[in-house]
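Sorry to interrupt, but I need a hand with the structure work. Go ahead and set the record down below:
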Amino acid sequence: MATRRPPHSFSLYWGSIKGSVTHISENNLALVSAGIAFFVMLSLFPA
C-alpha cells in the first residue's frame, strides 16, 4: 500500500523566503556587493 506524501504548504515556502530576505537585509548584502563591484571596477580602470 503506497503512502501519500502530505501536500507542500505555501506557508513552508513563504517562511523560507521571508527568512532569507530578512537575513540578507540584516547583513546589508546588496550594499556590500555593490561596494565590492565598485572598487573592483575602479582598480581595473583607474580614473
About this structure: Residues 10-27 form the longest helix (18 residues). The two ends are 71 Å apart (CA to CA).
